[in-house]
Write a structure and sequence with these properties.
heterodimer, A: 116 residues, mainly alpha, 2 domains, 6 helices, 85% helix, extended, B: 232 residues, globular
C-alpha cells in the first residue's frame, strides 16, 4: 500500500503543478517526471514502490478498456469519413513506427561504431 | 428497461466487476491464441455484453471511470522501469531522442498529408495530426488547434490500439526488434497502449517506450506551435 500511496502522491503533485502553473502537460506526465527525479535523487527508494508499480504496469491494459468502449459513441460520426480517417490512421501509424524504429536503429549502430 | 435492472447497471460495481472479469478472460484467451490482442478482445467483449444486456453506455461509464482512474498512477509507475534501466538508456539517449524527434514529426506530417490527399477538411486534418501522442496531450493540442477534441480522443486511442496490435511484430520483421528501436517506435507511435503491451514482454523495452511516450507527447505540443499560426 505504501507504493500505491507514493504513486498516487506523485500523480497528485503533478496535478497540483499543472493547475497552479497552468502548464500545457498532463498531470500524469508531470507526476512521472517528478517521480523519476525523486528516484534518482534518492528521496524515494525503489523497494518502497517496486511491487505496486509492477502490479499496475502489468495490468495497465485493463485501465484502457473503458476508454476503448467509449469509442463506440463515435462510430456513426467516423462512418461519414471512414476512408479518409482509415487511410490516415493506418498510414501514419505505420510511417511513425518504421521511421522511429529505423532512425533509432541507425543512430544506435552509428554510436557503436564510434565506440569500438 | 425495468427499474431493478436500471439501478443495478448504474452501480459502479457492475462495470468494475464485469470489466475485470472480461479482462481476465481475455488474458486467458491470449495465452492460448497469441495473435488475439487482449485489449481488443476485452473491449469488444464488454461492448457485446452491454449490447446484449441493453445497458446504456452512460450507466457503464459510472463504474468505468473507477477503472480508468488508475491510468494516472500507472503512468507515474513507468518511472520504475525507467530508473532501473537508466544506465542502459543513458548510453543510447541521443539515438532514442533523435528517433523520437524524427518519428513524431513523421507521424504528424503523414497524418495531415494523407487527410489532405484524400480531400478531407482542414478540421479533420488538425484533429488527426496529434493522434500518436498520449491522450491527455493529443486532446489538448486538438482543442487548441480548433479540431474536434472528442473525435481526436477516439482516434488517439485507436492509434494506440493499432500500434500495440501490429507494431511489435512488424518492427521485429523489419529488423528493428532491439529494445531501443522497438521501445522508441512503440512509445512514439502508440503511446500508453503500446507501452502497456511492451511492458508485458520486456521491462527494458517497456521502460524505453514509456520514456518515448512522454518525450513524444512533449514534442507533439512543441511541433504544434507553428500549426497554430496556420490554423487561425
Amino acid at each position: 500500500m505504501l507504493g500505491i500511496g507514493i504513486l498516487l502522491g506523485f500523480h497528485l503533485l503533478g496535478m497540483v503543478l499543472q493547475h497552479a502553473l497552468s502548464l500545457p502537460l498532463p498531470a500524469n506526465v508531470l507526476g512521472l517526471l517528478l517521480f523519476v527525479i525523486s528516484l534518482f535523487a534518492g528521496w524515494i527508494r525503489l523497494e518502497w514502490v517496486e511491487v505496486s508499480a509492477n502490479f499496475l504496469l502489468r495490468h495497465m491494459m485493463l485501465f484502457f478498456i473503458p476508454i476503448i468502449v467509449a469509442s463506440q459513441l463515435f462510430f456513426p460520426l467516423m462512418k461519414e469519413q471512414w476512408l479518409t480517417i482509415g487511410v490516415s490512421w493506418l498510414g501514419s501509424t505505420l510511417i511513425a513506427l518504421f521511421v522511429t524504429g529505423w532512425a533509432t536503429k541507425s543512430w544506435t549502430e552509428g554510436k557503436k561504431e564510434t565506440d569500438e | 428497461m425495468s427499474d431493478w435492472k436500471q439501478s443495478l447497471f448504474g452501480e459502479p460495481l457492475f462495470a468494475i466487476a464485469v470489466t475485470v472479469l472480461i479482462y481476465l478472460g481475455a488474458q486467458a484467451l491470449h495465452a492460448r491464441w497469441r495473435w488475439l490482442h487482449p485489449l481488443l478482445a476485452a473491449s469488444v467483449g464488454v461492448m457485446l455484453l452491454l449490447a446484449a444486456l441493453d445497458v446504456p453506455y452512460e450507466a457503464y461509464a459510472v463504474g468505468g471511470r473507477w477503472i480508468e482512474f488508475w491510468l494516472g498512477p500507472a503512468t507515474v509507475a513507468i518511472g520504475v522501469p525507467l530508473y532501473k534501466h537508466a544506465a542502459y538508456i543513458r548510453r543510447q539517449l541521443p539515438a532514442i531522442l533523435g528517433g523520437i524527434a524524427v518519428g513524431t514529426m513523421s507521424a504528424m506530417a503523414s497524418a495531415g498529408a494523407l487527410v489532405w490527399l484524400l480531400g478531407g477538411t482542414k478540421e479533420l486534418m488538425l484533429t488527426m495530426m496529434p493522434k500518436s501522442a498520449t491522450a491527455p496531450i493529443s486532446i489538448e493540442v486538438v482543442r487548441q488547434l480548433g479540431g474536434q477534441p472528442e473525435l481526436g480522443a477516439v482516434l488517439t486511442v485507436l492509434t494506440g490500439l493499432l500500434g500495440s496490435m501490429i507494431g511489435p511484430k512488424l518492427l521485429r520483421m523489419a529488423g528493428f526488434g532491439d529494445p531501443f528501436s522497438l521501445g522508441a517506435a512503440i512509445g512514439t507511435s502508440s503511446h500508453g497502449i503500446g507501452t502497456a503491451r511492451l511492458l508485458r514482454e520486456s521491462e527494458l523495452a517497456g521502460g524505453i517506450s514509456g520514456f518515448s511516450m512522454g518525450a513524444a507527447g512533449i514534442l507533439t505540443s512543441l511541433y504544434a506551435v507553428p500549426l497554430y499560426m496556420w490554423a487561425l
